[in-house]
Specification:
By secondary structure, the chain is α+β, with helices and mostly antiparallel strands. Among the domains are: about 45 residues; about 90 residues. About 50% of the residues lie in helices and about 15% in strands. The strands form 2 sheets. It has a 6-stranded antiparallel β-sheet. A two-stranded antiparallel ribbon has the order 1-2. The longest helix has about 35 residues. It starts with a helix and ends in a 16-residue tail after the last helix. About 10% of the residues are buried.
């Protein structure tokens, strides 16, 4: 890359590029490296603008081209996610509708359907995928809003418990005081004023 083509790259960045290419023993020239980087950046920014297509099934996202399978009475039935729909027998369906169409009412789609995600090597039961996602969600750190909501909920629970305890102690102290009134005392428990 000669000086005529470098004026759009800051000198410090150009020096870093040369150093990086040298350390990596790259056969790319600085011009080729810049061209590759620009092409990669343009491809990624174009890809990020196109929305991810697929079907959202509760917490499980089934990307476009995901396959679904259900076995019933030794027969296998298949559906495929096309754009934002699950297509079964040429019609868009929900997972539950697919299970009902195959085996009748009372079926649990999470238990009965198996999923083959794009680029996945094997079929996985939908319930197992759901459990894995829930486990990951439980392990992720709380966002600031979620942490504040959890703290507020804990404070609310604590205050309610404290109020319940105060009511209980108040009730107990009133009951004990009533037991000490003379109408509840035995005559033998009362002291004479003469003594």
């Amino acid at each position: 890359m000669d000086a005529a083509h470098v004026d759009f790259i800051p000198p410090a960045v150009y020096a870093e590029l040369l150093s990086h290419l040298h350390k990596k023993h790259s056969t790319l020239s600085p011009t080729e490296a810049v061209a590759c980087a620009l092409r990669l950046w343009m491809a990624q920014s174009s890809a990020s603008r196109s929305p991810l297509r697929g079907y959202q099934w509760k917490e499980l996202f089934l990307p476009d081209t995901t396959c679904l399978r259900m076995t019933y009475k030794d027969m296998r039935f298949f559906a495929k996610v096309i754009d934002d729909d699950i297509v079964f027998r040429g019609h868009p369906v929900t997972p539950r509708k697919m299970a009902i169409d195959i085996a009748g009412d009372g079926r649990n789609a999470w238990r009965d359907l198996w999923v083959l995600l794009p680029d996945a090597p094997d079929w996985t039961n939908a319930a197992r995928l759901r459990a894995q996602i829930r486990q990951r969600l439980d392990q992720r750190p709380l966002s600031p809003a979620e942490a504040i909501a959890a703290a507020a909920e804990a404070m609310n629970t604590t205050l309610n418990a404290a109020m319940l305890l105060i009511r209980h102690v108040d009730h107990q102290s009133t009951t004990i005081a009533e037991r000490r009134l003379p109408k509840h005392r035995h005559q033998s428990d009362l002291l004479d004023d003469d003594h």
